[in-house]
Design a protein that fits this description.
The protein has two domains: 1-110, no CATH class; 113-258, no CATH class. The protein is globular, with a radius of gyration of 17 Å. The protein is 71% helix and 0% strand. By secondary structure, the chain is mainly α.
Length: 258
């Protein structure tokens, strides 16, 4: 699969990241598509097969594919693996966080519940925050920006996780450590605090990296709604309307602020 085909895959399966990526110049933007397509393949591997053991095997395959590419081996026989291997040929240090994403998704494959909020935070750090950091590096983020980017990624990941909670529960995963309203509200407030800390450290992140971070655009709205009315999590009414999301992305793209 070419980078253009990866872009088409992302546009169909992850429209928020696809739209945010358009804020990057064409050259650097091309480095985002294999990363985001890889993320979609991990989701497909974790949730596609009915048998958890098969899902686990597919995720292990992707972890091995990343390791092979980072060592300079030939890409695996898969449509997304070749563009990803080409990217790792120049950004081999991303192999660690990319492999960690695949490993973390194995919890989803086995529908393992989270023992506490710390376990959920670790999962979000390996998945949503890990992907955001890889995307930021692909756009030129320095190592000194990692803490800020990961903090933003965890907050954005939590918002997306809360919004998706009903769908996750319908597929057999208990998405939250507790369904108690006060615990959900506290979790959302913690996410808002993390979002504020990340934005306070904005100066550490080059403006050219913004396209990797704009996926956090709806996070504040979603987390604030969950903090005020935690029952909206189970009701599936956290996500903002599409037109507001588009406006938020446009505003972020024009201002370079997230």
């Amino acid at each position: 699969m070419s980078v253009a085909a990866c872009a088409a895959l992302v546009a169909a399966g992850d429209p928020l990241r696809a739209r945010a990526a358009l804020a990057a110049p064409a050259g650097p933007r091309a480095r985002l598509w294999p990363l985001y397509a890889y993320n979609l393949e991990l989701a497909r591997a974790a949730w596609g097969p009915a048998e958890p053991a098969l899902a686990d095997l597919r995720l292990a395959w992707w972890g091995e594919a990343v390791a092979d590419a980072a060592r300079g081996g030939p890409p695996r026989a898969h449509a997304v693996a070749a563009p990803l291997a080409a990217l790792l040929g120049t950004l081999g240090h991303l192999a660690g966080p990319l492999a960690a994403m695949a490993a973390a998704r194995r919890r989803e494959a086995w529908r393992e519940p989270f023992a506490d909020e710390a376990a959920l935070a670790a999962h979000l750090d390996a998945t949503a925050a890990g992907l955001m950091w890889c995307a930021a590096v692909a756009l030129g983020a320095p190592p000194s920006a990692e803490a800020v980017v990961r903090a933003l990624g965890r907050a954005a990941g939590l918002a997306a996780w809360l919004a998706a909670a009903p769908a996750l529960a319908a597929r057999g995963l208990r998405p939250l450590p507790s369904d108690a309203p006060d615990r959900i509200a506290a979790l959302a407030r913690e996410g808002l605090a993390g979002l504020a800390r990340a934005r306070a450290g904005r100066a550490a992140v080059p403006r050219g990296v913004a396209a990797a971070l704009l996926v956090a655009a709806p996070a504040g709205t979603i987390l604030a709604r969950a903090a005020r009315a935690p029952a909206r999590v189970a009701a599936g009414t956290l996500a903002p309307p599409e037109f507001r999301l588009r406006l938020a992305l446009l505003a972020g793209a024009l201002s370079g602020r997230w």
